[in-house]
Amino acid sequence: MFGSSHSSSQDKAILVHLYLSQVKDIDNLIEFQTLAESAGVEVVSVLTTSRSAPHIKYYVGQGKAQEIADAVEELGATVVLVNHQLSPAQARNLQSICNCRVVDRTGLILDIFAQRARSHEGKLQVELAQLRHLSTRLVRRLGNQDQQKGGAVGLRGPGETQLETDRRLIKVRIQQLQNRLEKVNKQRNQNRKTRQKADIPTVSLVGYTNAGKSTLFNAITNAGVYAADQLFATLDPTLRRIEVQDVGTTILADTVGFIRFLPHDLVSAFKSTLQETTDATLLLHIIDAADERKNENIDAVNQVLSEIGALEIPTLLVFNKVDQLEDISPHIEYSDENKPVAVYVSAQANQGIDLLFEAMRLLLKNELITETLLLPPTAGHIYTQFRLHNCIQQESFNEFGDRVVTVKVDKIQWQKWLKQFNELNDYIEFARWG
């Protein structure tokens, strides 16, 4: 919808923000500016006003609406971005007085989502949310049709019919998308069940948008996931396999960034994007350590986590961008029970990534079992498994050419091997008899 920052047809936007309380929420406005820049528009002016309640017709009041219209003309703006949720009527009234597109906060976030969606599911979800948003605003198109036809007698009917047709088509399309998403969801659940069956832990990265999640994700996996200094730079959860010492294969999931005041209907639209989060074994909550609003951001993330039922999951705080702070170097912070609670890193400068792995190891590792086995030459397939899992502590040969191996391995993995190789217990016995 918006011009990209590289094109000559880049949208020029006027930002509008209304303070509804005595306390001016500057953070909210700053975030909205970042959102606008993320959508690739050039902000030519920011207009703010205070009211005790939104104006019923224009949201901002008649005088302010006229001021916005004058600014549009004077600055050659192509779009007005309003940092609130407008009713269809308010959007329509502002549009007709300003003579240009008017997009509210939800519309802007949806536009960013549309630009960022990478996966099939991400795109389906964006389209669904956009259509739901549009279906309440269809009246606007009728208004335009009437103007084009000059509202002539005898021509009003088809306009209405057109509107009904649009409504019906949108309804059909929404149904199609919901069915498709259900299929995708079933598939995702299937994949997730397979992982859970295999006891593969999932680590999910969550965090306030722009905290450096994708950069950190890249540093951990070298996966080259799209990372840019923009809000919502990731939309669909990107999954990568990583190896964590004493834990083995682990799935790392990068999710969409959280923001304050995410419109509620969008939370539901992006539920399954965050589904990886609700089923994670461990959450890495990424925080921009250099941001003075970091505490509010942490609260904003916890708010969304509680909405999707993920607050109970063990969480490790990861304070990123410590290279921008003078008095803090990468380190792990432990609780009284000696469990890692926070890690300080810099993804950009690649500092402290090893500490992050160490903290993940401590939080994810299961009970370890140490066993000594005597493996005859015929047990090469078992020995190969031990090598693959990197769990051999000591090995030697006896005079008969049998291998004496001491392994230290995760209890769950050991249980699996006992089921897989019936002869394991015998080999333990052989070692005992030596």
Automatic annotation (TrEMBL):
GO molecular function annotations of the record: GTP binding; GTPase activity; guanosine tetraphosphate binding; metal ion binding; ribosome binding
| Cofactor list | Mg(2+)
Give start-end ranges for the coiled-coil region(s): 167-197
Q: What residues does Mg(2+) bind to?
A: 214, 234
Any GO CC annotation of this UniProt entry: cytoplasm
Which keywords annotate this record? Coiled coil, Cytoplasm, GTP-binding, Magnesium, Metal-binding, Nucleotide-binding
Hflx-type G domain mapped to chain residues? 201-368
Taxonomically, the superkingdom here is Bacteria
For this protein, the record's PROSITE patterns field holds:
G_HFLX
Location within or outside the cell: Cytoplasm
Q: Which positions are annotated as binding GTP? A: 207-214, 232-236, 254-257, 320-323, 346-348
Q: Which InterPro entries match?
A: EFG_III/V, G_HFLX_dom, GTP-bd, GTP-bd_M, GTPase_HflX, GTPase_HflX_N, GTPase_HflX_N_sf, P-loop_NTPase
Q: Which Pfam families match?
A: GTP-bdg_M, GTP-bdg_N, MMR_HSR1
User: Where the protein is mainly located, per its record?
Assistant: cytoplasm
HAMAP family linked: GTPase_HflX
The protein's assembly and partners: Monomer. Associates with the 50S ribosomal subunit.
What does the sequence similarity comment in the record state about its family?
Answer: Belongs to the TRAFAC class OBG-HflX-like GTPase superfamily. HflX GTPase family.
The entry's function note states: GTPase that associates with the 50S ribosomal subunit and may have a role during protein synthesis or ribosome biogenesis.
NCBIfam families attached to this UniProt entry: GTP_HflX, PRK11058.1
List the protein's name. Answer: GTPase HflX
* Gene that this sequence comes from: hflX
